[in-house]
UniProtKB/TrEMBL annotation:
GO annotation (BP), single: putrescine biosynthetic process from arginine
Lineage top rank: taxon: Bacteria
CDD domains: CPA
Official protein name in the record: Carbon-nitrogen hydrolase
Lineage: Bacteria, Pseudomonadati, Bacteroidota, Flavobacteriia, Flavobacteriales
InterPro entries membership: Aliph_Amidase/BUP (IPR050345), C-N_Hydrolase (IPR003010), C-N_Hydrolase_sf (IPR036526)
Species: Flavobacterium cerinum
Pfam families in the record: CN_hydrolase (PF00795)
Length: 291
């Protein structure tokens, strides 16, 4: 299969878990009605983005993976014959938590999970308080419709992560994400930040010759101090925007991708072939100085 229809669910969230899960299921059904075969939900879609504060109570939001949410989503995936990409707060063991994305195949089979590798610690994004860095490495998943790679939010900024995922055979790269603007910022700063976020991901599409699908949350949170900027998008293997969501609205959209485009673009723009892998050893250093 080379033509694949992907569904992007860009939504706002509320405090309580169940309404968010219910809304996600409604939008998965909506995407399936539009023909979606793979549906990607945004990062940590069952809750508000709780990492704006360091609060031990928030650990109660975590759950096992597989667990309650994946059990429900597996039934939906099987019913609708869709692949579901679900970003969840994972409780691995007592006192051990990850920012994790589960992948469920179209027959309801739980295929596995990817644990976020790069963990930020910025004002209003205190993720190192909650999440242990991923220890599963980079991952791809062979689904019914395509071999997909999953990375999560802060992973977006790192070309090494996308390169390794592409080298593992990903035909489509998905990024569930949660990023926004402080409402105190000026519009020039907002535009600069969003453009950087989009450009770096489109560059991953170009460098690796694969489609990139980025799904972000939308809406005001943190008592109005944060506006999650939406702007979810799909880029083709040359970085061309095939779909761009608004900064304001909840949207569920389906976009058809042609995975064999990878062969065309990699043949005509052979960035993957022309890599000088013999020269890359220094990249494993933190910085190239004498220490």
């Amino acid at each position: 299969m080379t033509k694949v229809k992907v569904g992007l669910v860009q939504m706002s969230c509320v405090k309580d878990k169940q309404p968010n899960l219910d809304k996600a299921i409604r939008e998965i059904r909506n995407a399936a009605k539009q023909g979606a075969q793979i549906v990607c939900l945004q990062e940590l879609f069952t809750s508000l983005y709780f990492c704006d504060v360091e609060d031990y109570e928030n650990f109660k939001l975590a759950e096992a993976i597989p667990g309650p949410s994946t059990d429900v989503l597996s039934e939906i995936a099987k019913e609708l014959n869709v692949v579901i990409i679900a970003s969840l707060f994972e409780k691995r063991a007592q006192g051990l938590y990850h920012n994790t994305t589960a992948v469920i195949d179209a027959d309801g089979t739980y295929l596995g999970k990817y644990r976020k590798m790069h963990i930020p610690d910025d004002p209003a994004f205190y993720e190192k308080f909650y999440f242990t860095p991923g220890d599963l490495g980079y991952k791809t998943f062979q689904t019914k419709y395509a071999k997909i790679g999953i990375l999560i939010c802060w992973d977006q900024w790192y070309p090494e992560a996308s390169r390794i995922t592409a080298l593992m055979g990903a035909e489509i790269m998905f990024y569930p994400t949660a990023i926004g603007w402080a409402t105190s910022q000026d519009e020039d700063t907002n535009k600069e930040q969003y453009d950087a976020w989009q450009i770096i991901q489109r560059s991953h599409a170009v460098a690796n010759g694969v489609h990139v699908v980025s799904v972000n949350r939308v809406g005001f949170e943190q008592e109005g101090e944060m506006k999650f900027w939406g702007g979810s998008f799909v880029a083709n293997p040359q970085g061309k925007l095939m779909y761009l969501a608004s900064h304001e609205n909840e949207e569920t959209t389906v976009v058809e991708l042609e995975t064999k485009d990878t062969d065309h673009y990699r043949t005509h723009w052979p960035f993957l072939r022309d890599r000088r892998i013999d020269s890359y050893q220094p990249i494993t250093k933190r910085y190239l100085d004498e220490d």
